[in-house]
Amino acid sequence: MEITEFTKQEALRTGIALKEETINVAFTPKLITARHRLQIILEEIGKGEHIRSIDRRSIRTTRRINKA
Length: 68
Prior knowledge:
Layout: H1 5-18, H2 32-44, H3 56-67
Helix pairs in contact: 1-2
């Protein structure tokens, strides 16, 4: 599913607003449109090459390891 031009512009404005912030981690649901918006935002702040996906199972496993 493609995102609308309005949504693209909104994501771009969000990226511009966040440009001065330090962002190390960003989470998004599995929805393709949400991932597209996040990609636009991260590319705008110069972190587009750092996009990678993890699932909930990976997060739970990491939490268990960290608790041990």
